[in-house]
Every structure is written in structure tokens, then in C-alpha cells.
Design a protein that fits this description.
The protein has 7 helices and 6 strands. It is of the alpha+beta class.
Length: 210
């Protein structure tokens, strides 16, 4: 779901923001009735608008569990804490009845994510440990963090892409996508390993609670 209406970096207009798309997402879920729906938003959604989402899901006979997780919890060199919500249709799952909505503490993540390790030649100074950790996790060498754009040094878009754990060119290689749109796409995204870890946690939590 779009995070701008609930982000602390914005005006936090919540449901009054024209970018608030939950009513449309809800309608799609009601129409399609998927077995699972996996949603993500900023942590600020917990204090603004999340109660409405839970109320709507309960009215629709759906079950939800949620957790928060930082990108740093899967080894990324930045926090980017996000809220993850797993919605299930009890009828599709064969559960006896909706068990309501329940939250969870931040998912505890551990283990090796299988990166093969590819190291850049940049001198990272005191940041080297966290950069090397993310390189090992993703198997992607970190590009230079600075590039010249508009005649002056700026944060490298390729480095921002790497910070998200995306393969080189995943965003920056899209034909015709302007640099400003590349940065917007990367900034509004979620780290795939982070989302995968949250989903695994929520699915295991669901199974343990029955």
C-alpha cells in the first residue's frame, strides 16, 4: 500500500491523502478473495489509519497478523523499518473460523541468507564492516557511493539500488526511466530479503498459533 499518507517524512494526512489507496485494495481483496494477501507500509501506519484497516478486515471476515522488521535485521546497512501484514481468508485456508487480528513484536531474524560474497575495492573506512556484511549477504559488490550528476558529486543511484539489495540495473537499467524516477522507485521500495524474512516469520507464527 502507498506509504506517503502515513510516513513521518510527509504531511501524514492519512485517509485524507489522495494517495490513500486502502479502500481500493480492500475492494480488490473482497472481489478476488485470495488465500493470502501480503501488505507492506511504513511503521507510521501503526499510529495512523491502521485501526481502520483492521476494522475493515474484520468486517470482511478476514484474519490478519502483522509485524515490524528493519532492513538492518537482514544485514542491510540501513534501518528502513517497515510494517508487514499477512491477511488470510479463513474459508480458503480451511480454518474453523476467523481468529481475529493479532500483532507481533518485530520478527527475529537469524541465519545466512546465502550470498556468495563479492567485494568492492572502495575504501569504506569505518563503514567497511556493514558494507562487507551486505556484500556477503547479497553477493553483490558495492558500487562507488558518489557519482557526478548535473556537474556536481551526488549520491550514486547505483549505490542506492545496491543498498536495497537489488541486482545492478534492476532499476537503473530500465530504458527511458529518468534519474529522478529511478531514485523515487528505489526510495519507495522495500528490501526484498526484508519482505521475505517478514513473510516467513508471519507464516511460521500463524502455524504455531493455529
Amino acid at each position: 500500500m502507498p506509504c506517503q499518507p502515513f510516513s513521518n517524512a510527509g504531511r501524514r494526512e492519512g485517509t485524507n491523502d489522495e494517495r490513500h489507496l486502502w479502500p481500493h485494495v480492500r475492494e480488490a481483496i473482497r472481489y478476488l478473495r485470495p488465500r493470502y494477501t501480503f501488505l507492506e507500509n511504513v511503521r507510521g501506519h501503526l499510529s495512523l489509519g491502521f485501526d481502520t484497516v483492521l476494522r475493515d478486515l474484520t468486517e470482511d471476515g478476514l484474519t490478519a497478523r502483522w509485524t515490524t522488521l528493519r532492513a538492518a535485521d537482514v544485514g542491510a546497512p540501513h534501518n528502513r523499518e517497515r510494517l508487514f501484514i499477512l491477511v488470510a481468508d479463513p474459508n480458503s485456508l480451511g480454518l474453523e473460523a476467523p481468529v481475529g487480528c493479532s500483532g507481533g513484536s518485530s520478527a527475529e531474524v537469524s541465519g545466512d541468507y546465502g550470498g556468495v560474497g563479492a567485494f568492492s575495492s572502495v575504501d569504506w573506512g569505518g563503514h567497511a564492516p556493514i558494507v562487507r556484511r551486505w556484500e556477503r549477504v547479497t553477493g553483490l559488490a558495492a558500487p562507488c557511493p558518489v557519482e557526478v550528476r548535473d556537474g556536481r558529486p551526488q549520491l550514486s543511484i547505483a549505490f542506492s539500488e545496491w543498498l536495497m539489495g537489488l541486482p545492478a540495473g534492476w532499476v537503473t537499467g530500465v530504458p527511458g526511466l529518468r534519474e529522478s524516477d529511478q531514485l523515487k522507485a528505489i526510495g519507495n521500495g522495500v528490501v526484498p530479503l526484508q519482505a521475505a524474512a517478514a513473510l516467513r516469520f508471519l507464516l511460521s507464527d500463524w502455524g504455531s498459533r493455529g
